[in-house]
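Budget justification aside, the reviewers requested a transparent look at the raw inputs and outputs of the sequence design task funded under Objective 1. We therefore reproduce one unedited record. The lines immediately below are the structure tokens for a 519-residue chain.
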């Protein structure tokens, strides 16, 4: 009986709350100043407003990662799509040393000598890869974050850098330093490659490497197998053994290896340079905290202990020198000038972006666009405002690998700041993700309701040029009061969009506003 009464009471209470909610909502409609209106006192309509969208070259982007603890990704290689700017992406990095580096740590008798023989020296670049399949005998990986033609080689040279990477601004040491993607770096001497102009092609099957350990007389001591614990692939760039022995092993224990600071002065870093007209662009993760996944300079050598001329012992040694988080990207871009036609081109890194002007000119020079002044007279209540740009599917058909999955819209490219809706509504509502139609890249849409509402309801007169570029993970604000847009970009993807011209028909770039108005 008690359960039956309780159920009835709960049902009656829920009904009362429901009716109260209806009455409250009806009252809210009488007082509402914006947002969605659905009431017999209002009519709801849509309108399309013409906009202007044009190409704008990106000269450079910030490429040091000092303010964010290292870049999210580091690009290496060549991407040459004739529709866009060719990019040759290189890396300049400090190198980390370990404590107590000694070629010979063991103690031997006075009648013995130790001869050190370099077995191999190489630059190790672990790929970011996804496991496709695995059996008891083999694994199958696919390299991630790669665009271009991996069957074609690009030229790779590794140099000793002659430029000291400083975290402090040399002009004003009280401020942090910064490096742009087109910064110039000195290179010391010839390349450190074992083979100059090494022809590099990524290979997902490069999962193991065998080191032949040799004694001082050249005889084989043993063969070591080098592989990652995950059995995932890694690139190996052979380096000049005698040069690295001179620069590293012969200097262990010297003042240059006394501390990390001293070493940064002695050996300023590596310049890993990619050049060429074809090949692929690969993304590497220097920032990772997983040591075996972090790019490194690897030195493997054997100490042969001699008593006179008799070999009494052989000890294999290895030292790893990881690339520091203080690593800079270098983007050598083609700086192409795009034709004035019905397209705009967006390309990440230091490629190209678009500028968007809303609401037309200010002919009466009162700092407010004439169209805004006219629309304010309508007293619209803005329900929704969407800015949509369409992909030119004649150029970009089914290529979703090299097409950006997301674009980024912001205010005032010369002094960039976030659009209000990104802060007020969040990234998911704000949008900008690629939408497909029949598996083809189709369009990108941004919800800018709050921004447009503020302009048309006379809450704001700030209507700057908007910037549209390829999205980078560093673009999102850290919190709701973080209004400054960062200039990093390590996303090399590109897309061709249709601009605002009437020749593009219904697929022209446009601003759609849904509004309500009192009858």
């Amino acid at each position: 009986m008690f359960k039956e009464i309780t159920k009835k009471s709960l049902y009656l209470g829920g009904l009362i709350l429901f009716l109260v909610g209806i009455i409250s909502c009806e009252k809210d409609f009488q007082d509402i100043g914006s947002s969605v209106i659905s009431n017999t006192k209002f009519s709801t309509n849509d309108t399309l407003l013409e906009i202007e969208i044009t190409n704008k070259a990106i000269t450079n982007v910030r490429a040091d990662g000092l303010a964010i603890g290292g870049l999210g990704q580091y690009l290496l290689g060549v991407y040459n799509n004739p529709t866009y700017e060719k990019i040759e992406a290189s890396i300049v990095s400090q190198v980390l040393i370990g404590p107590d580096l000694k070629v010979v740590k063991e103690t031997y008798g006075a009648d013995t000598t130790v001869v050190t023989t370099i077995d191999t020296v190489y630059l190790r670049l672990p790929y970011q890869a996804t496991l496709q399949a695995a059996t008891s005998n083999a694994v199958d990986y696919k390299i991630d974050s790669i665009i271009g033609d991996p069957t074609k080689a690009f030229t790779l040279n590794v140099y000793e850098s002659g430029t000291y990477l400083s975290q402090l601004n040399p002009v004003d040491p009280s401020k942090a330093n910064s490096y742009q993607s087109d910064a110039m770096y000195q290179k010391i001497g010839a390349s450190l490659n074992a083979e100059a102009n090494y022809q590099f092609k990524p290979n997902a099957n490069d999962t193991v490497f065998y080191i032949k350990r040799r004694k001082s007389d050249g005889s084989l001591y043993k063969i070591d197998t080098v592989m990652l614990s995950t059995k995932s692939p890694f690139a190996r760039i052979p380096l000049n053994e005698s040069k690295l022995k001179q620069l590293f092993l012969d200097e262990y224990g010297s003042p240059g290896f006394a501390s990390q600071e001293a070493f940064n002065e002695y050996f300023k870093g590596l310049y890993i340079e990619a050049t060429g007209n074809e090949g692929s662009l690969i993304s590497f993760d220097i920032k990772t905290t997983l040591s075996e996944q972090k790019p490194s300079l690897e030195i493997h050598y054997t100490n042969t202990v001699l008593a006179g001329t008799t070999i009494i012992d052989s000890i294999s040694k290895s030292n790893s020198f990881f690339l520091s988080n203080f690593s800079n990207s270098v983007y050598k871009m083609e700086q192409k000038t795009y034709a004035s036609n019905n397209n705009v081109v967006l390309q990440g890194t230091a490629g190209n972006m678009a500028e968007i002007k809303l609401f037309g000119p200010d002919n009466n020079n009162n700092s407010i666009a004439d169209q805004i002044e006219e629309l304010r007279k309508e007293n619209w209540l803005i329900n929704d405002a969407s800015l949509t740009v369409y992909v030119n599917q004649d150029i970009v058909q089914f290529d979703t690998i090299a097409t950006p999955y997301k674009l980024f819209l912001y205010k005032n490219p010369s002094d960039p700041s976030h659009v209000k809706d990104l802060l007020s509504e969040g990234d998911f509502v704000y949008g900008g993700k690629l939408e497909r139609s029949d598996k083809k890249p189709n369009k990108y849409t941004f919800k800018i309701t709050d921004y447009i509402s503020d302009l048309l309801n006379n809450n704001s007169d700030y209507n700057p040029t908007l910037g549209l570029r390829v999205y980078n993970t560093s673009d999102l604000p850290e919190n709701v009061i973080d209004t400054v847009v960062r200039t990093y970009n390590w996303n090399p993807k590109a897309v061709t969009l249709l601009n605002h011209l009437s020749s593009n028909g219904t697929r022209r770039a446009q601003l759609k506003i849904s509004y309500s108005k009192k009858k």
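Residues 2-31 form the longest helix (30 residues). Confidence is low (pLDDT under 50) at residues 1-35. Computational costs for records of this kind are itemized in the attached budget.
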